[in-house]
Amino acid sequence: MRAVESKNLICDVVVVGAGLSGLRAALAVDPAYHVIVISKVYPVRSHSVAAQGGINAALDPEDRWQDHAFDTIKGSDYLADQDAAELMCEDAPRVVYEMEHWGTLFSRRPDGRIAQRSFGGQGYPRACYAADKTGRALYQSLFEQSIKHQVEVHQELFVLELAVEDGRAAGVIALDIATGNIVGIDAGAVIFGTGGAGMMYARTTNPYINTGDGMAIALRAGVPLKDMEFVQFHPTTLPGMNVLITEGARGEGAYLVNRDGQRFMERYAPKLMEVAPRDIVSRAIETEIDEGRGFDGGYVHLDLRHLGETLIRQRLSEIYDFAITYKGVNPVHNPVPVQPGQHYMMGGIATDKYGRTILPGFYAAGECAAVSVHGANRLGANSLLDTLVFGRLAGVEASRHVAQNGRAHVSTRRLRGAAETLGNIFARTGGEHYGTIRRELRETMTRMVGTFRTGSRLEDAQSRLKDLHQRYDGASLMDRGSLFNYDLLAFLETGFLLDLADTVVEGALLREESRGAHARVDFPTRRDAEFLCHFLFSRTPDGELKMAREPVVITHYEPKARTY
Amino acid sequence: MDDTVQLDIQRFNPETGDEPYWQTFDVPVSPGDPVLAALMRVREEQDGSLAFRASCRSGICGSDGMVINGWPRLACKTQVADARDAHGMIRIQPLFNLACLKDLVVDQTPFWDKFRAVFPWLMPDTYEPEPEKERRMTMEPDDFQLLSKASDCIFCQICFAACPIVGLDQEFLGPQALIKAYRFEADPRDEGTPTRAPVLDDPEGVWRCRTIFNCTEACPKGIPITRGIQVLKRAMVQEELRR
Predict the structure, then answer these.
(1) Domain spans of chain B?
(2) Nearby residues of B215 by Cβ (< 8 Å), 6 or more positions away
(3) What's the pTM value of the predicted model, to 2 decimals?
(4) What number does CATH give the domain B109-242?
(5) Is A250 tagged catalytic?
(6) Is B45 on the interface with A (CB under 8 A)?
(7) ipTM
(8) Which residues from B are below 8 Å from A486, CB to CB?
(9) pLDDT tens digit sequence for B156-210
């Protein structure tokens, strides 16, 4: 039914995703090799551009990267692999200077040095920033470099499968969105920088495109996912569309206030107050709302007024605009309504600190990967850093793999199989539409697998997921056209999200403790003796999920109680 | 959902017909919904074949530029309440000045070609050492704010669609490529003027701009594009005098 394009793309390294990790990986591949980057959207649409607050680096002579590493590890509730966190934090100043030399317009101090602000869980103001548009500033520089270096990007190719041939990654199979054709991309190595999966939640800061494609495709190809139960909820999003309000606002000194006018963080994190880590602030806000101290409609106030108009309009210009556009609230004069929303997946494709997975020739970096540097809770301004540090390393490692193993080839049989799978989806009639299934999935995850979790609600979520899977298997399309068939894309994305939701819920059920962003009301304490370990999820040949444990790498920082 | 809006959408699918046509959808909306939310509801609940690009929902990714009530805008930054007319209707078309591929999806190729033509990357002094240490950058705060504003471009193509000169003259570089060039020309770290001047200082470069200000008015990020182009014109005269 679907045409298989006769002319396949051939390269040494194929990078899937053109966000920060993907482009950084592509630029790091040895210039002797041919790199192709593919993305389901145009490069500048990737979600990296939406990052607001900053990128952490111990630049100041008074600061040390070891302290950054400690803050990251403590922030992770000791689930981060400490060697990886150390590698990232030590590399951070180099990354920032490199981006600055490539053109990033960082905000500056009066003496011309890069300005830094406080951020959640950091013991030192070390978040470098470009107003509240740091992701866009970094991304534009990287995108410009990719043009200068003539990186070959094929946009609007939607990845369907990771091709595994003879026990190694051999390329990917993609759908050309503009034509509906299936394209095979032969490569010696494959790098995924495919981002997060926030669309499995109803309340999320994530864009429509963050549907976990890469994670789900890896899982289906036999590559394990790590720590999927750890989902970050950002404390401050605008109720409604859940547009992000940067942590930088609190870094600059904004207050969180409940209905009684109280700065309630003094009861949850008396030392760090509003700049406590995100898991703690999100739970504090949820608790205030649950206990009746929120406002009608389920939110609290973020008060920026005392920061003054100049600071707000210069250093927080985007959120100034967001509050006015989406809520009709001018933060110079009125407090901004905020509530927690899904923001980031700490879990992802299990990699080591060089981006390698268990599948030879397959690498992952950025949000789709779990190295793990974020453990059970990511600190703000560490994800931009993560993409640039580990994106680069993945590119370097992929080059090394190609040097040793050469190119590989996606088999015709596999291409035909992909075409047949799509043909079968097109042939289904009379079934439910993905729309209702995806809406129920998102509602279920937000209601039952959110900030606070209990065993019984998770079990309920699990049985609902089972039902949704069954309905999805019989679902059919509204649009059977070839060109720009977004109905088909959303259908496929819904399948990815369902597979990933299984791993999130399964992990949350099995992890009978509270650690970082995973808070079990029925198991309120951290239990290191049993759970100071990663959960790795993989699929058995008959589709069942199986879980394996992996020890956490400890170098210098013994797990301690986590207070702020 | 306590309200309904009527979306009148220009449809086009070359697979099934040669001519564009108009189709109306009644869509339930909630207070505060942007036009994008209504479009998504159409695609999820009424007609899955409706093609439009969208991603971030908050005016950062630049995907959902389209013509709403005759003027190019971002669907995610346009409130239903503001856009609906007295009859509760909103008219939606693909962006002007770019060929329509399907429904609200346009061919962006000319836009990106022009952007690439202006050498859109920082060209530092080639004697600059490798980035091991911090490079200081000092600017007057007002100048830095102007530069920072110019760098806000999200590649949404709205200025390109709003510019009548782009519509008349396909060779014109257009407002986006020029504001991008300005972003580097205004950067004290950049030394790229001699490289960019042949492209900018050309009848199809800065001089084709007729200061109509449509780009500035339409830009969803509020970039003073026309002003930037005027500064570039002055810089080009100076560059000519210098040569």
Answers:
(1) 3-106, 109-242
(2) B159, B162, B163, B175, B179, B225, B226
(3) 0.97
(4) 1.10.1060.10
(5) yes
(6) yes
(7) 0.96
(8) 43, 48, 50-52
(9) 999 999 999 999 999 999 999 999 999 999 999 999 999 999 999 999 999 999 9
